[in-house]
Amino acid sequence: MIEIKTSAELDAMRGAGLVVARALELLAEAVRPGVSTAELDELAEQTIRDAGAVPSFKGYHGFPASICASVNEQVVHGIPSARQVLADGDLVSIDCGAILDGWHGDAAVTVPVGSVGAVDLALSEATRRSMLAGIEAIQPDGWLNDVSRAVEAATHRAEREHGRRYGIVRDYGGHGIGRAMHMDPFLPNYGRPGKGSRLRVGMAIAIEPMLTLGSPRTDELADGWTVVTRDGSRAAHWEHTVAITEDGPWVLTAPPD
Ligand code: MG
Ligand code: MG
User: Please, is 250 exposed, middle or buried when counting C-beta atoms within 10 Å of its C-beta (0-12, 13-18, 19+)?
Assistant: First the structure.
């Protein structure tokens, strides 16, 4: 069963989404060489709590922090650490979640640290554009697998434009979201046969492609969380929480317009 929200409930989810948007905006500004991912985590937790919300990641299956900070070959679920100090040329993906009045918001950005190579910037841009294509494909009475196919098609368009291949991470993907962070349905970032679930007004889905500069294969580190590329290639991750309305997709974690 996929949770259906009333328009008042989606308005409440927008409140949670705005908290996440604000936190990510401040975090992206704070990223620079010499900053540790633990400092970013502190800033995130403070921002979320100052807004009267709760960091949804903290304590989630024992996760110890308010953000995931995944640097370079880390794909997702990196644990913030005082020892992980960002250096010029790094690429850091920051994933952030907040709960406000019982509703969840979940979003991620990839941020260049100092001056980053063109190939890494293209990787991040390909990932962001794949997310945006998925968002556009979310339509009332559409099909879930069409969203997956749109994400993948945008990745392949970026590959043609950039003249290189990207690894589409298959082990993780998007998800339904609402009164919990991870709900049905699961949303792969590549097309699958069939139509999948029907998209209905009132559903909310987190769309989160992860691309790599090499193999799509991943491993989990011994810390039980950090997901890295098996071949050590760099990865990028972008995410938004999106509601389906009569008028089409509503990006709940977008900054206020
Ligand atoms: Mg997330
Ligand atoms: Mg998510």
Answer: buried
